[in-house]
Amino acid sequence: NSVGEGCTDLKREYDQCFNRWFAEKFLKGDRSGDPCTEFFKKYQTCVQKAIKEKDIPIEGLEFMGPSKEKADS
Amino acid sequence: MKIWTSEHVFNHPWETVTKAAMQKYPNPMNPSVFGVDVLDRNVDQQGRLHSKRLLSTEWGLPSLVRSIIGNARTCTYIQEHSVVDPKEKTFELQSTNITFTNMVSVDERLIYRPHPEDPEKTMLTQEAIISVKGVSLSSYLEGLMASTISTNAGKGREAMEWVIRRLNTEIEEFAITARGTIRTPMAAAVAEK
């Protein structure tokens, strides 16, 4: 389950995709790209929001999202 | 500060154990872990997979206590960074608590590797460093936590066996279904002739 209750379905979709790629491609030495990026993006948007709402002190998250632009300028 | 270490051998090859470890939660042996979220994932230049995950745990305080403290405050969050090296066959995980850090710090490190003497087996080395801060009896509390970690590590290994069995069942069921679907079109082709 996801820390964001509404994100569990998105998480499951991503997990299924990832577990398949991990077992059938990555562990067998297949270096072809990760096919799960779309699922991951949708899932991440949901989770990042839940983390902010619950005020969970994640380290290193400042590299993602709007603050990235601030660092560039 | 207390350091706890352990070594364990799984009678399964490294790939099986690594797949299971990635899907370890939820499982019936570690009921306090109720949430796992992937925060980031990428493959580095050497082909190793890095994952950053958030584990949400709930220690099951009696509901009376929870109603006083409030639900949100009884959740403990753990941040985990792991690296899978498919060439070297290592799966290394490091985790630390990110809540209650002013009271206690638990840093854990796990490494899964093929057994040096038997490639069909996997060796797990585990280590936890526990520090209880600013409280007297801290070494007693640290000892208590170490024994809890030891018990949980045993459950964690049972959990791994449970996940491995479940994955094997899924594979068998899939194979049975696949054989069934192949047989039907062949039978239809023979009948047509």
Question: What is the molecular shape of chain A?
Answer: elongated
Number of strands of chain B: 7
> Which structural class matches the secondary elements of chain B?
alpha+beta
Strand content of chain A: under 5%
Instruction: Record the strand order, biggest sheet of chain B.
Output: 1-7-6-5-4-3-2
Number of helices of chain A: 3
Record field, number of beta strands of chain A: 0
Poorly predicted tracts of residues of chain A: 61-73
Shape of chain B, please?
elongated
For this structure, the quaternary state is heterodimer
Give the helix tally of chain B.
Answer: 3
Q: What fraction, in percent, of the residue positions of chain B are helical?
A: 25-40%
Sketch the topology of chain A as an H/E string, one letter per element: HHH
What is the N-to-C succession of helices and strands of chain B? EHEEHEEEEH
Please tell me how large the radius of gyration of chain B is.
Answer: 21 Å
Sheet with most strands of chain A: none
Helicity level of chain A:
55-70%
SSE order and pairing:
The complex is a heterodimer of chains A (about 70) and B (about 190).
Chain A: H1 8-24, H2 37-54, H3 67-72
Helix pairs in contact in A: 1-2
Chain B: E1 2-10, H1 14-22, E2 33-43, E3 49-58, H2 63-69, E4 75-85, E5 90-97, E6 104-114, E7 122-132, H3 138-192
Antiparallel strand pairs in B: 1-7, 2-3, 3-4, 4-5, 5-6, 6-7
Helix pairs in contact in B: 1-3
